[in-house]
Amino acid sequence: MTNLKEFMALEMPKIEEVMLDLVEKIQAPAILKEAMSYSLKAGGKRVRPLFVLAVLDHFGKNHANGYVVGSAVEMIHTYSLIHDDLPSMDNDDYRRGKLTNHKVYGEAYATLAGDALNTLPFGIIARMTDLTAEQKVTLIELLSVAAGAEGMVGGQVLDIDGETRQLTLDELVNVHVNKTGAILRFSIESGAVLAGASDEERAILRDYAYHIGLAFQIKDDILDIEGTTEELGKTAGKDVASDKSTYPALLTLDGAKEKLDIHYKGALTALGKLPSDSTLLEELATYIVKRNK
Amino acid sequence: MTNLKEFMALEMPKIEEVMLDLVEKIQAPAILKEAMSYSLKAGGKRVRPLFVLAVLDHFGKNHANGYVVGSAVEMIHTYSLIHDDLPSMDNDDYRRGKLTNHKVYGEAYATLAGDALNTLPFGIIARMTDLTAEQKVTLIELLSVAAGAEGMVGGQVLDIDGETRQLTLDELVNVHVNKTGAILRFSIESGAVLAGASDEERAILRDYAYHIGLAFQIKDDILDIEGTTEELGKTAGKDVASDKSTYPALLTLDGAKEKLDIHYKGALTALGKLPSDSTLLEELATYIVKRNK
C-alpha cells in the first residue's frame, strides 16, 4: 500500500494546516478558538478528508477545494466527538489518548466549542471562492442532511436507544448507515461534486460509500473486542461491558468478520464500475478494514 | 400599536405552522423530532422571525420566503436556549413557564435536539425554491457568522467569562452585540437580502439592528430586576443573585434605562433614513423596549 501511505503522509499535514488556519482566522474569543482547535488537533485518522481528496484525485482534479471541504467535514466529525464524550452522553475522559475537551475546558465551553464547530463548516463552504453558487448550495444541502437529524445526529439518537434494548440487525444497520455512514457518504460524494462527476459516477460512489460506512463501523465494533486500550487511544471492551448492540453481539465475532468482508467486497465491486483506475479508493477501503485502531 | 398587534396576531401562527412543518417532514427518529418540536413549540415572542417579515413587509414583498428564513433563525435561537438551559450551562428547569428540554427528554437527547436544530436551518435555506443560488449562499454565510463562534456562540463564551469577573462596559457591549445582537442582525438583514434591498438600505438596517440588539438585551437585564418570575416564565432576579455583569450592575438601574432610551432613539433615527414608511419597524422597536416579558 505504498501509494496510500505516500498519499496520507503528503495530505494529512496539508489538511491539518488548512483546517487549523480556518479556525485561526475567525474573529472569536481566544479561549473558544483554543477549545475548538484542541479537539481538531487531537489527531485521528482524518479518514473523511482523505476520502474527499481521494475522490478528487481519482478524477484528476486539483486538491485545493478538497482541503477546505475536507476541513469542513472533519469539523462536523470533531464536534460530534466533543458532544459524544460529554458526561451526559458517553462520559469519556480520554479520546485518541488525550483528555477529552470537557476535561480540559469544562462542560460549558466544550458544549459551545462543539456548537461552533457545527456551525462554522456551512460558512466555510459558503465563502469558498473557486466554486459556483450552485455547487456550494449542493454541498451545503448534502452536509446539512448528512450531519443533522436525517443523518449523523439521528443515528446517535438510534444508537442511544440501542443501549437500553437489543436492536435487530436491520435496526443496527440503520444506526450505522446514519451515525457513521452519512458523514462518510458526504465525504465521498462531496469529492464527486467538487470534481464535477456525472450522476452515474456519483451513484457508483454512493454505493461504494454505503459499503465503506458499514465496513468502518463493523471494524470499530471488532476492534472494541480485539484491540487494546493503548492501540485505540480509547477504552477497549466498552461495548461488551455495557451490553451494547453491536455486530459481534448480534452475529458473533466471526459473523461480524464475515459481514465486514461482504462490505469490503461490495465497496470494491462498486469501484469496478468506475471507468478509470481507482487504486487509491481501493487502498482506502483496504485500510478501513485492515486497520488496528 | 394596533398595526403591530394585528401583524403579530396574523403572522405568529403562520411562522409556527411553517416551522413545525419543516421539522415534521424530515426523515428522523420520532423521539428526536418530538424533542426538537417540543422546544420550538414552547412559545416565546418569535421576535426574530417577526423582524424578517417586517423587513419584507417594509419593502412591499411577499412574506412566503420570510416564513422559511424566519423558521431557520428561530431554530438557531431555540437550539441555543436548549443548550443554554443544560445543567452544565445555566441549569434552568423552566423556560417560558414550561419544563426545559433536558428535564423532559434527558440531557443526551436535549444536547442532540439542540445539535439537530443548529444544523437543519442551513439545509432549509439551501433547499428553498424561490431564491437564486447566490441569495442562498449569502444567507447561509450571514447565518453561519451570526450563529457561530464569530457571533452568538462567541458571545455566550464572553458571557460565561463575565460570570466570574466584573466586565467593563465595553466588554459588556461586546458580549451582547454578539450573544443577542448577531442573530437579531441576521433576522433584519436576511429580510433585506430576501427583499433585494440596496447596499445603502442594508447598511441602514444593520444600524437599526445594532441598536435593537442592545436595546433588547438591556431591556432583558431590566426585566430581570423589575419583572416577576410569573410574567417572565423564567426565574427573575437571577442576574443579581449570581452577581452577573449586566447593564444595571454596571450603570445602576436608572443608568441602564437611559442607555435603553439612547438605543431606542438610535433605532428610530436609523429608520428615519429609509426612503419609505417604516411604521411597522418603529412599532417593533417600541415593542422591544416597552415589553414586560
Automatic annotation (TrEMBL), chains A, B:
Name of the protein: Farnesyl diphosphate synthase
Catalytic reaction equation(s): isopentenyl diphosphate + (2E)-geranyl diphosphate = (2E,6E)-farnesyl diphosphate + diphosphate
Alphabetic keyword roster: Isoprene biosynthesis, Magnesium, Metal-binding, Transferase
GO biological process, one term: terpenoid biosynthetic process
Entry EC no(s): 2.5.1.10
Keyword Nucleotidyltransferase listed: no
PROSITE patterns: POLYPRENYL_SYNTHASE_1, POLYPRENYL_SYNTHASE_2
Cross-referenced InterPro entries: Isoprenoid_synthase_dom_sf, Polyprenyl_synt, Polyprenyl_synt_CS, Prenyl_diphosphate_synthase
GO CC entries: cytoplasm
Cofactor(s) this protein cannot do without: Mg(2+)
Family in the record: Belongs to the FPP/GGPP synthase family.
Pfam families: polyprenyl_synt (PF00348)
Presence of keyword Transcription regulation: no
Organism of derivation: Candidatus Kurthia intestinigallinarum
Molecular function via GO: (2E,6E)-farnesyl diphosphate synthase activity; metal ion binding
